[in-house]
Amino acid sequence: MIASIAFYLMATATVVSALLVVTARNPVHSVLWLILAFFSAAGLFVLMGAEFLAMLLVVVYVGAVAVLFLFVVMMLDVDFVRLREGYARYLPLAAIVAGVLLAEMIMITLAVVQGGVAADATTPAVATPDLTNIEAIGRVLYTDYVYFFQAAGIVLLVAMIGAITLTLRHKPGIKRQKVADQVGRDAGKAMEVKSIPTGQGVSSEELS
Amino acid sequence: MDNGFWNSPLGWTLASTGAALLISVGVLLAVAFLLLADRKIWAGVQMRKGPNVVGPFGLLQSFADMLKFVLKEIVVPAGADKTVFLLAPIITVILAFMAWAVIPFAPGWVMSDLNVGILYIFAVSSLGVYGIIMGGWASNSKYPFLGALRSAAQMVSYEVSIGLVIINVILLSGTMNLTSIVTQQDGWIWNWFAFGGGAGTWPTVLIMFPMAIIFFISALAETNRPPFDLPEAESELVAGYQVEYSSTPYLLFMMGEYVNIVFMCAMISLLFFGGWNPGFDVALIGLPDWPQWAANLFYLLVFSVKIVFWFFMFAMVKAFVPRYRYDQLMRLGWKIFLPTSLVAVVLVSGWRVAVEAGLI
Predict the structure, then answer these.
(1) Are B104 and B65 within one domain?
(2) 3-state secondary structure at position B291
(3) pTM for the model
(4) By residue range, what is the domain housing residue B136?
């Protein structure tokens, strides 16, 4: 009973917040609703017994991706009036995209309901009940799909290097902190003790 | 828990609510006194007395502070986004308490024994940044905003190194369940993961002890403690993201911060320093013959002592170390901790594979 209450609660939260992502006037509010949508979707994952995926969804999307969204949206100087102007112009295109997505989703749902996909799809590779989700995923990920996994890693690495090369700028004439030099500096390197004869003093030439 | 009522939906709800309440009140009480301890230690280092007026030795200072906060007026700035402004501290404090749900205090004394416990903690702590960003943005003022941006960048950066350090522990223990991570560290002190985790894996002490130190430093940065308290650097940003906050919302921010600090102390103890294990063979004091509740109380005491010890270290660092500059903070996180912990992950997993393959 608690599970079904939780399901309806989180499902409603997901749908409503996803709707509000689109309709909210303030882009920052949109991102906040998006975060709520991610979070409720993670809750739905937990109810399905996929706790590992749920945690990953929260860590990756809510903890990292949405933070960057929020960062960018907050920094933008958004003009709300101008934002509204293009609404009518882009409506037809947006309607087509939305229509195609809707049709695809209905088709997939119908196919799953009628068993057309389930019959053909391979059964889960690991069905042993005493394995936890993490172990089950790990066993397939690092054996059967290890090349795909590595390829995904390389794609991410390339993206990372690309981002770094795009943003890295070497300006000439900038003083940079050299920690090793600072730490390595001692009294012997930094100063020189001169003995000054009493009553005579020193001239500035002698000091240099 | 074995009779029928506690397994019915109503009984289960009551039991979990009770457990949540017990943990929250316990943590809050602990935070109240640790906050005082923080101020006392800080004062002691500077040869001051610290709070000593309210109650004997100032013991009731935190409660007086709380009353004062609650009784003051809540000021919401005119241009602020009111809902988000008030939501931010609430989110901070809720998330701070949420993470405690998976902390095992003693054998069996854990509210929710998740098998993805560490990931859960990681997920909840990665959400913590939202309270600060939302607070900073909703205040509609530039100091809070700058503080929030700094804080977001800082917390996201140090989360990476904390995650990689935790992966080392997961690699050694082979589980993400906190209870079994702690039970693997029972017995003598060299079974603690900071000291390599026992007979089979003792050479990893060379990696794990530095990792424990990195975890401690990253925890300082993650909880915005000095020397990494850039988000609220008073010499630059007045008080960072909480400039515009007053009264109860401010209290919630501060409470969330301290609950997080105590939580990080608990995490260091759990992951690296044996959790509730006292560091010697418990059979020496005849613990297996004790009644269950007495043994658990003993374990709880050991765990609390460890938390208090790490909190003491947090307080000492606050007293001793001058604040980092922002670029130094980022340099430390990305150029030193990230590569070091990444190499450590490679070494520890290499060690595991080599042992399994019989090479060592």
Answers:
(1) no
(2) coil
(3) 0.83
(4) 78-357
